[in-house]
Specification:
single chain; 591 residues; mainly alpha; 29 helices; 74% helix; 0% strand
């Protein structure tokens, strides 16, 4: 027997000839054995190429692929042989496409020949299986190219039950595209061309259908386009502007699917698409589109980045902003969708900057009175808003420049003020409770103070508000894990808590002195029980801790910069702490 390395093309020719002769002799079992031997021959050639790359081996591969293509293109070829080869050759030959452009061209022609000669439904499952295997190859991007090209042709060739077939194939395609996007040296244009070819094929299929199946295929296309928008955006390693021409090509698909930027940013369009495609009996199908909300929100941001993108979708961004400014419910929905961009660790900062600017745009001129309509229930949207604000706090902490941090802080304040008063304090309390940064905790406690000073919050159940404030202050001054707060590490948070407590003591005292009506139970903060608790459990232990810390630092060498820095951090805490102690002692005397 000839060795693979001696003359691989001759051995392949011999095996293919034996395949034909076995069919003529009626030996199906022998055919299977010969096809398996052919596959082993090709795999051995591939392993040899990987270990000993050379021009000579590349020429051998080209000869082998050319020999396979000649046999498949022969008019005398037996259908049983083609069917037997189709189960294996698309997968094994796709391994060679990374060698050269010539190899890629030959493999594409081989796959195309199978698509033309074999049953479309069989080829759909064969190519999907090959794509799944390509994900584990050394070069998923290259190996998948001819397979995706063939799959786009198979879609159009399917004669019936189009939606069921596409529903199986599309998730596999998306997994492959996502894997490719994670490659360090991914070519964004190449990735996009593969994704666009599949989208065009799905649209062609949809245009040939009628009634319910056409609507489902169209919805599936919409989900696919939204998902590949997320994949494309995450794969960008440089400037987003370089991919504007690519995104422009996606916009006509959105129009074809009846999607709008406003519907996408509110989440209404994605919910409609998913409910149509997934249905009540297929809850797991949604996992095939893990980045659907990210892609939906990114499509609007792309339109904000480029007017050309907006024009391609016949969308007017100004009208979308005006609609969101005037409609609290849609605005709250938009807040919830933007969390997917703001919390993503894979996107360029450029996308987050535009997302923050969009938040500022839709909250421009919005007042708290606009969102306090008792007939509008915000509770359904509060979890999404909270998650977005958590992401906003991360942007404030980690943004690469001061301008973005400033804009993000302004967006944080505006979104908080847009939450109806009954829910605003709950969101603030949750943000403080889950904050892991002392500086951010101090910022949030400052916003709690600002919210308390607004008339909209003063009109709510004051006893409930007082209880929340007590919880927040205690959370910092008497941490749930036990012991006093760590100083100076927690200095910002401690100072913020003391400032909030001092403000509340003064605020409550003025309210009482002015004779303003409070809730039936009166001021919880000024009750004797809570005053004594604060005095004995928070303030006095903290006074001891601060005094000892300052004294200990002053004993150290005066030249040590760290000691002086610690004292500078502790001095403001000491000042506010003593003022709080004085206020509590005065109120206790009145009891």
């Amino acid at each position: 027997m000839s060795s693979v390395t001696a003359s691989p093309s001759r051995r392949v020719r011999e095996l293919l000839a034996l395949c034909f002769s076995s069919v003529e002799a009626g030996g199906n079992r022998e055919l299977e054995s010969l096809v398996a031997e052919l596959v082993n021959c090709l795999n051995s050639l591939y392993e040899n190429v990987v270990l000993n790359a050379s021009d000579e081996l590349e020429n051998d591969v080209i000869e082998v692929l050319d020999e396979i293509l000649k046999v498949l293109s022969s008019p005398q070829v037996d259908q049983d042989v083609i069917d037997a080869l189709s189960f294996h050759l698309p997968k094994v030959t796709s391994k060679f496409v990374d060698l050269s452009g010539r190899c890629l061209h030959l493999v594409e022609e081989i796959v195309d020949r199978f698509v033309e000669a074999c049953n479309p439904r069989d080829m759909l499952s064969i190519l999907c299986e090959a794509l799944d295997a390509a994900r584990c190859s050394l070069s998923p991007s290259s190996c998948s190219t001819p397979l995706l090209h063939g799959l786009s042709k198979v879609f159009i060739s399917i004669q019936r039950r189009h939606y069921e077939q596409l529903k199986v194939a599309v998730p596999i395609v998306l997994n492959v595209l996502k894997d490719i996007s994670l490659e360090t040296d991914v070519q964004v244009e190449g990735l996009f061309d593969k994704a666009l070819g599949i989208a065009s094929s799905i649209r062609d299929v949809s245009s040939k259908l009628n009634n319910e199946e056409e609507a489902k295929v169209r919805c599936l296309l919409g989900l696919y386009v939204i998902q590949i928008t997320a994949i494309l955006s995450v794969s960008i390693r440089d400037k987003a502007a370089s991919c504007i021409p690519l995104v422009i090509q996606l916009e006509p698909f959105l129009t074809y699917c009846g999607l709008t930027h406003l519907g996408l940013i509110t989440g209404n369009d994605t919910e409609k698409l998913m409910s149509t495609v997934a249905g009540d009996d297929d809850d797991d199908f949604g996992t095939s589109f893990p980045d659907i909300n990210l892609g939906a929100s990114l499509l609007l941001i792309w339109a904000k980045i480029s007017h050309e993108v907006a024009e391609a979708a016949n969308a007017a961004s100004g009208s979308d902003v005006a609609e969101l400014q005037s409609n609290p419910v849609k605005r709250w929905q938009a807040y919830g969708m933007l969390k997917y961009i703001l919390s993503s660790v894979d996107l360029l900062w450029e996308f987050k900057r535009h997302a923050i600017e969009f938040l500022l745009d839709i909250t421009e001129g919005v007042t708290s009175s606009q969102c306090n309509d008792e007939q509008i229930d915000c509770s359904h949207y509060t979890p999404g808003i909270y998650a977005t604000l958590q992401a906003v706090t991360l942007v404030i902490m980690y943004a690469p420049d001061a301008d973005l941090r400033k804009k993000t802080f302004e967006a944080l304040k505006r979104v908080l003020s847009d939450i109806p008063a009954p829910h605003r304090f709950d969101v603030l309390r949750a943000l403080v409770t889950n904050s892991r940064s002392p500086s951010m905790t101090a910022i949030l406690l400052g916003l709690v103070k600002d919210s308390m000073s607004e008339s909209s919050l003063q009109a709510t159940d004051c006893a409930t508000t007082d209880t929340h404030v007590i919880e927040l202050v205690e959370l910092v001054l008497r941490p749930p894990e036990g012991g006093p707060p760590l100083l100076p590490d927690q200095s910002d948070a401690v100072l913020g808590a003391l400032n909030l407590y001092r403000f509340v003591l003064l605020f409550e005292s003025r309210e009482c002195e002015a004779g303003k009506e409070r809730s039936k139970v009166g001021s919880e903060i000024l009750s004797k029980k809570n005053l004594e608790k604060a005095y004995k459990e928070w303030l006095l232990p903290l006074r001891t801790l601060v005094s000892c810390s300052i004294a200990e630092n002053l004993k150290e060498d005066h030249g040590q910069e760290s000691s002086l820095g610690d004292v500078c951090l502790l001095n403001p805490i000491e000042f506010v702490l003593y003022r709080c102690i004085e206020l509590v002692e005065e109120r206790l005397k009145s009891h």
